[in-house]
Design a protein that fits this description.
By secondary structure, this protein is α+β, with helices and mostly antiparallel strands. It is 57% helix and 16% strand. A hairpin with a 5-residue loop joins β6 and β7. 34% of the residues are buried.
Length: 575
């Protein structure tokens, strides 16, 4: 590969890594702390906050327009000027010469229009920050703390599933299985280095690093995975809705049966149909009456993957049934052509489809948002909880290490990194500068890759980071020493560089590949901090190989071939 192609490759890699790293930079150095705190709220809380703020802001604007119509809009409401400007253009109205309170207020059709616009501004602003949290480098429990959740096993649900009072061994087995499922779900959700342990006989303590986000916690801690397929009774649905329109008060029991006999036939149950609003929150739409006995249980699903519709672009869950489930589903759909099939998730109807023909093993589901589809597919793949879990206590926790210990550890690592660079500069002179640039770039690439995968950085991970720096130095030392040997034989600078890189290549590859294999096995077999160390080590090895063999080589070739340097500055002992 020539120098131009190498340079172009390096620039592309740096740009991509810069894009990966930018959200992390924004999160820790650019975003306002109050926005980060707001983004940690649940989506229901964000919706309530946006509605409240919209009402407050509109009142301020209306009061100002009533008392001082020519007054300037307060700075905190200046975002309304852009919205009003767009509304003026859409209405083909002349823009005011200056944006006053009355001028901005005239940019909205009515009070509801203004409320929706202001509420949308706050919603998008906070949810954008919330989305960024899924693409940043998280700090571990030891560095920044996180969220502690104490889960209580509902042994009554276990008794219902078993059909008898569970023995002590069955209770213990259910708790152990629940911990295994939690480990699988949390790991696949991208939350690395959680701490999950049993507490007492029927409790599980989960500690998750990073910002406390109730939505993420609920998605993998409380998801039951009880996905069932029911046939909708259209006639009973119409009868129930007519009955509900003429009656008030409590009409259903806890199981969804009407309190008054004869409203719907036996064997039917009322379930609410829900769709996602702009906040991705379940919103009640209407009631449906479905057959109480499911036509197919979600336990027959053997695989679930998320795709997208080629026409609408909306998320689609593609899942495969086992042979028994395929036969049951084919019989269900074949005998109910032209009827509606309801997809019921945890007692909520989430989607429905008209049956046009019999369907066997491969099924597609729509009606879910992207996040919900991903979460549901994961829950289906990892299996339903053997026992229902409820949150007993949920709170934020501080860093497990003291502030002094963190500062001392980071200071020691920084001193070590600087010492390595100084040694390379003093011992290898000009070549040491090349190695130092490669080391800094190596560190940048590692942090960018860790950010891209939303991994968690702990002091253990930082130790793995420093180890990769040492290995990167080792690769440079091997290459430099081979170049010096060739240079001492009387070869030219250009020939020495070429021969040195060629002869050192397999030595460097051998040392790094064996360590990389060990890191891969360690990342798959280990858990917690050890797994984080393995991830960092594996990423660091790939990065250090790139910088040592690719970036350093470009610097040397540029100096000899382009700048025409004839004498190597590679050691104070080389003349």
């Amino acid at each position: 590969m020539n120098k131009r192609a190498r340079l172009l490759t390096i620039i592309i890699v740096l740009v991509i890594c810069g894009v990966f790293l930018y959200p992390t930079y924004q999160w820790y150095f650019s975003l306002e702390k109050d926005k980060i705190e707001l983004s940690a709220m649940s989506r229901e809380q964000i919706r309530e906050y946006a509605y409240t703020k919209a009402g407050e802001d509109l009142k301020v604007l209306q009061d100002l327009a009533a008392t001082s119509p020519d007054a300037e809009v307060p700075e905190e409401l200046s975002f309304l000027e852009d919205i009003a400007k767009d509304n003026y253009k859409l209405a083909d109205k002349d823009l005011p010469s200056s944006w006053t309170a009355s001028g901005v207020l005239s940019g909205f059709l009515n009070r509801d229009d203004a409320l929706r616009s202001i509420e949308s501004y706050y919603r998008d602003d906070i949810l954008d920050v919330k989305e960024k949290n899924g693409s940043i480098l998280q700090l571990g429990l030891d560095l920044s703390g996180g969220m502690s959740v104490l889960l209580q096993a509902d042994l009554e649900s276990l008794e219902e599933r078993l059909g008898h009072s569970p023995t002590t061994d069955e209770e213990s087995e259910a708790i152990v299985r629940a911990i295994e499922i939690l480990n699988n779900r949390i790991d696949k959700f991208g939350v690395t280095e959680p701490q999950i342990r049993r507490q007492g006989d029927d409790q599980i303590l989960v500690e998750i690093p990073g910002a406390a986000d109730p939505d993420r916690v609920d998605s993998f801690l409380k998801g039951k995975g009880s996905l069932n397929f029911h046939i909708v009774d259209d006639e009973a649905t119409a009868a129930w809705n007519a009955y509900k329109d003429t009656h008030t008060g409590l009409l259903l029991d806890d199981e969804g049966h009407p309190l008054e006999d004869g409203v719907i036939e036996l064997g039917r149950v009322v379930r609410g149909f829900y769709s996602k609003d702009d906040y991705d929150v379940d919103t009640y739409v209407r009631d449906l009456v479905i057959f109480e006995e499911p036509g197919l249980d979600g336990a027959h699903i053997v695989n679930a993957q998320v795709g997208s519709d080629s026409l609408t672009g909306k998320p689609i869950i593609n899942f495969t049934l086992d042979s028994e489930g395929g036969d049951m589903f084919f019989q269900l759909t074949s005998s109910n052509v032209e009827k509606t099939l309801a997809i019921v998730l945890d007692d909520k109807v989430k989607a429905g489809a008209r049956i046009s023909e019999g369907i066997r093993e491969s099924v597609r589901m729509t009606g879910f948002g992207k996040t919900e589809a991903d979460n549901l597919a994961l829950v289906l793949r990892t299996g339903a909880m053997p026992v229902d879990l409820r949150i007993n206590n949920q709170q934020s926790i501080g860093a497990s290490l003291g502030e002094d210990a963190i500062q001392q550890g980071l200071k020691a690592m920084a001193i070590g990194f600087i010492a390595v660079i100084l040694f390379m500069l003093l011992y290898y002179l000009g070549a040491g500068f090349v190695a130092s640039v490669a080391l800094v770039m190596n560190l940048f690439l590692i942090v960018a890759i860790l950010s891209a995968f939303n991994l968690t950085l702990t002091l253990t991970s930082i130790a793995g980071l420093i180890l990769t720096v040492g290995m990167a130095v080792d690769a440079n030392v091997i290459i430099f020493e081979r170049i010096k040997e060739e240079y001492r034989l009387g070869k030219s600078a250009e020939a020495s560089i070429k021969a040195g890189f060629q002869k050192a290549l397999w030595t460097v590859l051998d040392a790094n590949i064996t360590t990389f294999i060990a890191a891969i096995f360690l990342s798959q077999l280990a858990t917690g901090p050890v797994q984080g160390f393995a991830y960092t080590l594996a990423v660091g090895i790939v990065s250090s190989m790139f910088t040592a063999l690719f970036v350093s080589r470009l610097f040397f070739d540029f100096s000899t071939e382009t700048l025409g340097i004839k004498k190597l500055s590679i050691s104070w002992r080389t003349k």
